[in-house]
Each structure stands twice: as C-alpha cells, then as structure tokens.
C-alpha cells in the first residue's frame, strides 16, 4: 500500500541556522506517528512543513501521491491541533467546529449534523452554545480535537496538544486521543517531548535530535534496541557502560570497562569502542547471571509498584536497578552484585 | 518548544499601510509646527530674520509674569491631580475586574465631558451667587458670599477637576500590573504595612505616576478655557496670551515665539521624563525603572522618609479610627472623589430646566423654555449640525488612517515602529494651542480658514493619537495563531480577515471611531482660529456665548452635549466588550 505521506530530502534553513536537515519520512495510512525529541530537535519544523505554515527550503512532500510543496496552507488537506488550542474566542463551540465545514462550502444541514456528531464524539454535546473562555483547559482541548476531526482531513497534526494540561488530565486525554484515532482511522502525526506520552500513544516513534531523525521504529524497538546513546538516554532510564570491545568467550565479543569485563549480546556487531545499555528492570540480584557488577547501595526509593535501588560503581558512576516492591531491599551502604543476561542488554556505538 | 509556530509570520509589505498617516501628519502637523519656529524668528513688521519677538518676551514684565504663572499653575495642577488621583486609582486597581470596569466609566465620562461644559458647571457652582455660596449661606455658615472664582482657587479647582481623570487613566494600567502579593511578601519579610506599601507598591507604580504627572503638566500648559472663566487677571496663562495676540493684535511673530516657548517647555518635560523613566512607560510598558546615580539615591531616600512619616500618621489614624473604619477609608475616598468628578456636571441639568432668566440654584420653577430657545435658534442648530458633520468626517478619516498605521506597527518590530508610534502620539504631547496656531497659519495660505475641510483636517490630527492607541491596544492582545489556525482549517487570506481578524478587532475599531468623534465634537482650540462666521462649531458658539454673557440656554446646550457624549461613551463600552464575555 502506498504511504499516506512521503517526504524526500525535505529541509528548512534560516540563513546559517538549519532547523531541519534533509529528511526522508514515510507515514502509513491510519498510522499514529509521534515526532519525539528535545527542544530545537526539528520536530515542530517538520510538522509546520507538513501543514504548510513554513515553506521548505528544499525537498519534496507528497500526500496521497499529490505534490504539496506549492499548495498554500488553506488548500492542504491537513488538520492542526495547536498546543494552546487556538479556538476562535468570538465564536461559540459549535461555530468553532463548524468553521472548517463552512470554509469548504458544506450546506447548513450537513454542517449541523456533522457538528453534532463531532460534539458527541468528544462528549461535549451540551456545550455547543458556550464560548471557549467558559470552558476548562481539558474541555477546550476536546473542542480543538473535534474542530479538527470534523472535516476528516487526510492527515491530522497535533503540536504538543496536551502540554498545557495537568498530569492527571493529560493521562485521561491520551486515552481519549487513542480512542479517537481507533474510531476514525485517521492518520495522525503527533509532536511531543514527553517520552512516556510517545510510548503510550504511538504506532511508531520518530525520535529526533539536532535537526534530524535519530531513530524511527515502534515504541518497543526503540526501547529495547536503541540505536545510539542519545536514543537510549532519551527514552526510559538507562544504565550506560562505556568501554573497548575485546574478544569474549565462545567466539563472541565482550566489553572491557573500568568496572569490569562484560559479555555482549550475541548479535552485537560493535566497532572498537561501544557502550552497553542495561535497563533498570533487566538488572537483578540473581547470583547466576553471567554479567555481574559490584556496587555500593547509595539509596533505595520506594515507588509503590517498584523499588529503585541507586548504587555507585567503583568508578563513581551510578546505576539504577528496579526491584519488585515485595522483595526485601538491600540496606544503604551494603555492597551488592547486580547481574543481567547478556542478550537482554543493547549495544550502541 | 513551539517558538516557530508562536512567532508571528510578519507578512512582508504591511509597512506601507502607515504611509498615508505619516504623510498626513508630516503635512498637517510637523510642517505647521515647524513653520511656527520660522515665524517666531521673523520681524513683526518687515519679516526679516530677527529675535525681536523673543527679546520683547523676555524683557517685558507682563509676559515674564504670565510665563511664570503658567508654569506655576501647571505644576500645581499636576501635583494636586496626582495626590488626589493616586488613591482613587489605587482603589480602582484593587477592585475586581467587572466592578472596576463600571467604576472606571465614572472616571471616563468626566474625562470626555466637554471642557466648556465642565467649566460652565464650575461657574455655576462657585459663582458669587453660586451653589456653594447659596448652600453655605443657607446653612448659616457664612454671612458674606465667599469669592471662589476669578482667583487662583477657582482656576485650580477647575483644572484639577479636569485633569484628575487623565491622571487616573494614565496611572491605572501600571497599577493593575503591580502584583499585590509582593506587598504581602514584604510584610512577611518584616516590613510594616505602610513601609511595604511605599517601598514596594508605590515604587513599582511610580512609572505610571510619573507618566501621569508629565501628561497633566503638558496638557495644563496649553489651557485657556479654565483660566479665562474661573481665573482673574492674575491667572492669565500663556495660551490666552497667544489667542489675544492672534485674534486681536494679529502679531504672528510674537504669537509664534510664545508658542515655541510652550513647545520647548513641553519637550523639556518629555526629555527629562525620558531620561528618568524611559518612554515606554508612557505607553503602558514597564519602563526602565529609573536611572542610576544621585537622583535615584536621593529619590529613594525621600521615599523612605515619606514611608516612615506616612507609617506614623497611618498608625495614629488606625488607632484613632479603629481597624474597621480604617478599612472603609479607601472606598469612602474613592466614592467622594468620583462624586467630585461627576456631580458638578450633573448640576447643569436642573438649571437647564429653569423657568428663570438667571442661573439660580435651586431653580425657582421648571420649564422647557431654554430648550425651546436652543432648538428654535438657527444659529445654535447650524452650529450643532456642523459639529456633527465635522465630527463624523473626522472619525472616518482618523479611524481609517489610524487603523492602517496601527496594523502596520503591529506587524513590524524594532526601532522603526517605535519611532512611528512616537510620531502618532506626538499630537497628544504637543500642546493643542501650538498645533492650532501652526495650522491656522498654514490654512490661511491654503484658503482653508472657516471651511469644514480645514476643521476636519485639524481635528483628524488631534484624534489620531486616540485612534492609534485604542487600536494598538486591541492588536497587542491579538493572537496571530488564530490566523494560522484559520488557514489550516481552510480559510484563505481574505476569509481570515473577514471571519476572524475583523470580528476580533471590530470593538477596537468602533471605540476608536467614537473617541475620534467625541474629540472633534468637543474641540475648541482649533475651532477658535479656524471656525467662525458662517462656519461656527458648537463649542465655538458656546465659547462666544460664555464670553458675552452666561444664560440658561448654555445650560440647555450643555445638557444636550453632555447626554450625547455620555451616550456615545456607553456605546463605546458596549462595543469594546468582546463577544463571549457575559
């Protein structure tokens, strides 16, 4: 099946500043793709290029096989949900939602019908006659979503739509967005800097850094097989051990670090130097693990569903280990040996 | 994070929108005022270059005295307006937003009420047989009537009454922006309530106070209505002198020199202010917050002394009154100040319905005869209609020019738009009498004296600052992302303007139109020179009548003018309230 959106070599420069390096990206129809990255990583620029609020310096952009580069914003079949909603303050909720339909010249009965449907979709049936300023932040966000879904654009773009909401409401709205996505089958490109949000929502994550794509893959791929230290560090908590690659037992490879020598995963094809990424939940106190590292317990944090043990390596670096909440935690100051199965960890250049 | 989306995408080439306004001001404001300078340097008889007029000014006792009187009265007016206006503004700033809006209207109405109407009201209040004397004599407090007008007291009452609203409206935005929690924070850090007020709140509100002082001082420099009717010979001010030089003596050179002097005084005040506070606080910005050096240190020292003194007085008052009464003091003052601003004008209304030929209060009986006189007089009706027409034309011109300029400024940044803004505000800072004189000189050569077109041009110059300030304020809060949102939802440039931008700034446009209308409808300074004979405006007709003899017809006219302006203001308030606020 042809991808919904195809970008080839698209880039944006402001004078000597590069906001986005030449980038290739395919987005599948019906996919939920998240652009994830820190400030200035180019994710918002990429979003603006797709909707046309920014003109590309070079490159091509096709939606459903149609070239978009010379199409003005209002002719592109995209919807954008703004971070601060951008609801029209002089229009009621219903009038806001009707706006894109009116711009498309739909007749009044059709408009009324669709607005009603869209309001029902976001559970705001009773709020049609209100003005935006009479709504809470979460309600305004629902209206912004309805205003976007109501005209069924080919692609829906969301620019940190939950950034202004508090944590609890954000979790709730994440579920609603996921539900809307499933119900409508829309193709969604979602921008966020919150890795948990990206993991929870996405079919695929496009991790961005320094104005280019760092890694593109499913949340699971990116979490378990990060391609770089940045990717490992940005998503989830990582313990990173750096060292030189040497020959290991059974013809495999091992990593020589200041804290000891560790067996690398079987499929690893590292160069001369590499880093080993071990997630906290991959560590255990199991004495039978082939890779073991000695450390002194600095702190034990009880977090309800887990306990986090922070321990200092001989080199002074800290590692974090996750233990089940029922297990008796080691005492502060105690020396422990943490172990992991070589194939669980990931190797990055 | 989304800085790129948030930033306005300045559509290139909107700067030209300011061009018509700039050209208009260059031709009808900058050029006439500049030509006054040349005029003042010409010999009255031969027209050769000479400083004779200035020499005469500085060597003649009478003129020097008028200069000193003008500065003294202006300074006194500024100080009194600040002292009386500050607590009122402080009270307003502390009110919840909706109540503040309503209370503020009671300050806005006297601000826009015609100077002539207000002065007429004070003549009725303070005259020998006026309201105050009648009441006091009736109560047996005084035997002989007090002389309350035709002296410095009368002038100051009239000027301060006129200027308090300007002072309050200038101070208020700065005061509202001061975070009152800082005062509480200062108290938790060990300051007494009075110290906390003076050293924190007062200091933070000071840029507003200074801006108000500047505007009041400059406006007062050019006053002539109040001193003409409420003052005596000892209170003759510079603007009266200028009018006499032109209308009676036709001495252009000397009038030019007087006007230059007034302009220089105003500019010196502005420069001083700019040095100390920065121009931005005049436009409601934060300002630089004072320079460094001895002036600032001396100021701080003074403040601390004031704080200590005030804290002793306030402490004593609190123990004397008890905490409950002390808490009522501010609202009580606010109400009294608003009564002072509003009541004199209201007194004109019953007098308009008097059956007597005189301005007695209370009226011996009631009748409609003075309204009949007004509406039956072709002279009054012609003047009224002319004022209406001129005001409508002015409002249209000024709104068109000013809105275009405001949009251009909102879309450009940097030094450029700052200079533009200063140019469009300048007609508010240069004393009106100076503008009027320069314009008269220009119009005399263009054949525009005693024409409606001349009046419209002159009034447009005066109305432009109000229009630009009003529309700029609306545009400042305009969220450019709404334009982007509309674009992504399928609206092209034209539809964005029509469905989004226009409805959102419509209130500002209507308010600007009405402010311009009122400015023109009420304008006398330019009308004194430029209108006359067949082309008399309503304020000019009132002025002529008031000089000749006070009569109840004036009360009837004042009532009509007052009601009209108040109605327009209420309309403006409704227009400015955006849809979606209930």
Question: How would you characterize this protein structure?
Answer:
The complex is a heterodimer of chains A (349) and B (582). Chain A has 349 residues and is of the alpha+beta class. Chain A has two domains: 221 residues, 3-Layer(aba) Sandwich (Rossmann fold), CATH 3.40.50.300; 112 residues, Nucleic acid-binding proteins (OB fold (Dihydrolipoamide Acetyltransferase, E2P)), CATH 2.40.50.140. Chain A contains eight helices and 19 strands. In chain A, helix 2 crosses helix 3, helix 2 packs parallel to helix 4 and helix 3 crosses helix 4. By secondary structure, chain B is mainly alpha-helical. Chain B has a domain of 246 residues: MetI-like fold (Orthogonal Bundle). In chain B, helix 5 runs antiparallel to helix 24. The longest helix of chain B is centred in the middle third of the chain and has 59 residues. Chain B is globular and about 70 Å long. Chains A and B meet through helix 1, strand 6 and helix 2 of A and helix 20 and helix 21 of B.
Task: Set out the fold topology.
The complex is a heterodimer of chains A (349) and B (582).
Chain A: E1 5-14, E2 17-27, E3 32-36, H1 43-51, E4 58-63, E5 66-67, E6 78-81, H2 93-103, H3 108-121, H4 137-149, E7 155-159, H5 167-184, E8 187-192, H6 195-201, E9 204-209, E10 212-217, H7 219-224, H8 229-234, E11 239-247, E12 253-257, E13 260-263, E14 273-278, E15 291-302, E16 307-312, E17 318-323, E18 335-340, E19 346-348
Parallel strand pairs in A: 3-8, 3-9, 6-7, 7-8
Antiparallel strand pairs in A: 1-2, 1-4, 4-5, 9-10, 11-12, 11-14, 12-13, 14-19, 15-16, 15-18, 16-17
Chain B: H1 3-6, H2 19-40, H3 52-59, H4 61-94, H5 97-112, H6 115-126, H7 131-138, H8 152-177, H9 181-188, H10 193-221, H11 225-230, H12 238-247, H13 252-277, H14 294-352, H15 369-376, H16 378-410, H17 415-429, H18 432-446, H19 452-476, H20 480-488, H21 493-521, H22 525-530, H23 538-548, H24 552-576
